[in-house]
Amino acid sequence: MSLLEIDGLTIRYGGITALNGISIAVTEGETVLLVGANGAGKSSTINAIIGLVPAAGGRIVFDGKDLATVPCERRARLGIGFAPEGRRVFPRLSVTDNVLSGAFGLGRAHQKQALDWLCSVFPLLIERAKQPAGQLSGGQQQMVAIARAMCSFPRLLLLDEPFLGLAPVWIQQISAAIAQMKQRGTTVLMTEQMARPALKLATRGYVMRGGEVRRSGTVAEIREIALADEYL
Ligand SMILES: Nc1ncnc2c1ncn2[C@@H]1O[C@H](COP(=O)(O)OP(=O)(O)O)[C@@H](O)[C@H]1O
Ligand SMILES: [Mg+2]
Predict the structure, then answer these.
(1) Measured between alpha carbons, how far is 157 from 28 in angstroms, rounded to an integer?
(2) CB atoms within 10 A of CB 88
(3) In which domain, by residue range, is 10 found?
(4) Res 50 pLDDT > 70
(5) Candidates 9, 11, 16: which one to mutate for ligand 1, based on the most atoms within 8 Å of Cβ?
(6) Among 43, 159, 194, residue to substitute to test ligand 1 (most atoms within 8 Å of Cβ)
């Protein structure tokens, strides 16, 4: 059974159709990539899963539960973690408090366990623990955003363009961190415009364009079309 099943999802913003009946499935343990140029509908898909934008049609089922009946704030508790596009950290909160905000309401023992593990993955969280997150570089902020999303130990981790605007050295470090999340058994659904580094992490993917899925399959099957789209 799929952990996440999206069936015929349509999203509209006023008169604009951003997603036109797309279907996507993610099985437990997979790392699935939504790849496509700017405006393809990647963020709309992610934002619909976490409940930030309403669906105009179709269904989103997580762990057997139709999310239409689950309000936004309860979806995190079901086991969905989310790092938004543009890595919006709380700029004045310390690095530690940013990370812990992802485990809000989960109890001290859980928070300590999560923070200990995350500090072993991201040494930055120790080195910069007390620094306001707004003072960090873009790559460092992305690490804080991913750590925050992982702090609840979600079953499904959603990453919206984790490489956006980052230098290659940071893309490498973020990739290594995502690989560790995978190793921990976390199921990942990530979006990217930058197909090349993203294809290295994924097991399977969907190439999106103009609110539709153009091609889906294993990384080998979608590589060519994903890379051709990268330079549009
Ligand atoms: N809040 C919004 N209001 C109106 N149009 C939007 C809004 N958000 C996205 N769109 C439009 O929806 C389409 C898909 O956007 P988006 O999901 O952000 O794509 P991507 O994340 O792949 O760049 C684009 O045409 C975009 O301009
Ligand atoms: Mg986007």
Answers:
(1) 11
(2) 11
(3) 2-230
(4) yes
(5) 16
(6) 43
Find out whether the beta carbon of 39 lies less than 6 Å from any atom of ligand 1: yes
Number of domains into which the chain is organized: 1
Q: What is the DSSP letter of 198?
A: H
Neighbours of 144 (CB within 10 A): 27
Could you identify the residue written with the tokens 């330079």?
A: 231
* Residue 106 CA: distances (Å) to CA of 52, 67, 79, 152: 22, 22, 12, 7
Residue nearest ligand 1's atom 18 by CA? 43
Q: What is the DSSP letter of 53?
A: S
pTM for this prediction: 0.96
Any idea what DSSP says for residue 24?
E
Give the domain CATH number at 148: 3.40.50.300
In a 13 Å sphere around the CA of 54, the CA atoms on its Cβ side amount to 5
Which residue bears the tokens 């893309």?
171
Q: Which helix (H) or strand (E) holds 150?
A: helix 138-150
The residues placing their C-beta within 5 Å of ligand 2, an ion, are: 42-43, 85
What's the confidence (pLDDT) of residue 1?
A: 78
Average per-residue pLDDT in the chain?
94
Q: What are phi and psi of 201, to 5 degrees?
A: -95, -30
Amino acid (1-letter code) at residue 31: T
Task: Evaluate: CB of 87 within 6 angstroms of ligand 1.
Answer: no
For the chain, give the number of residues.
Answer: 232
